[in-house]
Amino acid sequence: MAQPTTPAVPASECEILFSADQIAERVKAIGKQISDDYKGDSIVLVGVLKGAAIFLADLARAIEVDNTFDFVAVSSYGKGKTTSGAVKLIKDLDTPIEGKNVIVVEDILDTGLTLSYLRRLMLQHKPASLKIATCLDKPERRLVPIEADYVGFSIPNQFVIGYGMDYAEKYRNVADIRLFPEDKA
Predict the structure, then answer these.
(1) Cβ neighbours for 181, distance < 8 A, ≥ 6 positions apart
(2) Of 43, 50, 73, 149, which has the highest C-beta tally within 10 A?
(3) From the CB of residue 125, how many other CB atoms can be counted at a distance below 10 Å?
(4) pLDDT tens digits for range 22-79
(5) Rg for the chain (alpha carbons), in Å?
(6) Are 172 and 166 in contact (CB under 8 A)?
(7) Which is catalytic among the residues 110, 137, 166, 176?
(8) Domain 14-184 classified CATH 3.40.50.2020?
(9) Nearest to 28 by CA among 55, 53, 52
(10) Considering only CA atoms, which of 51, 23, 50, 13 is closest in space to residue 180?
């Protein structure tokens, strides 16, 4: 059975929402805020694969306190643009987080379903503290009440690509965050 093909839209045809320089400046500011909040402590960054991998890498380097990271993988979107509404854990943590300061790092906080699920899951591991950092926040899409402690940018309800975020596994390598044309998806 053949896989459905995705429309070929060159990234250059997608409007830049945030440039690589703007992203770098904002990540640096979040890193400083986290460093100030955890001065003298260490933290574990838990990245949500695959979209948050680039944000997590940049954020880890911007944080001045001791930090390590681990990853979880969940699925709620499949290969499309809309959530299925059901969150499924695909990969759990590799190392224990009990008694540790944990920051879940996500690419986009939109409906809140994934991060609510992950918050419940992480709390079962009994961390000393648990916070959320997200590169992008789409508050108009929220279906469940959840907020991030650290937010890169708040955006309108538009589909974005780049800086780790994809459409059907494409465009993750684009350095900017760009608006994906609604008529192409």
Answers:
(1) 9, 13, 14
(2) 43
(3) 16
(4) 999 999 999 999 999 999 999 999 999 999 999 999 999 999 999 999 999 998 755 5
(5) 16
(6) yes
(7) 110
(8) yes
(9) 55
(10) 13
| pLDDT at residue number 99 | 98
Can you tell me the distance from the alpha carbon of 51 to that of 36, in angstroms, rounded to the nearest whole number? 26
Residue 22, C-beta contacts closer than 8 angstroms, at least 6 positions apart: none
- What's the CA angle centered on 63, arms 62 and 65, to 5 degrees? 150
Pairing of strands 160-161, 177-179: antiparallel
pTM reported for the whole predicted model:
0.90
φ and ψ at 25, to 5 degrees?
-65, -40
Query: Which DSSP letter does residue 47 get?
Result: E
Query: What was the pLDDT predicted at 32?
Result: 98
Q: Tell me the Ramachandran region of residue 112: left when phi exceeds 0, alpha when psi lies from -120 to 50, beta otherwise.
A: left
Residue type, 152: G
Q: How confident is the model at residue 183 (pLDDT cuts 50, 70, 90)?
A: confident
- Please confirm, yes or no, whether 110 is among the known catalytic residues: yes
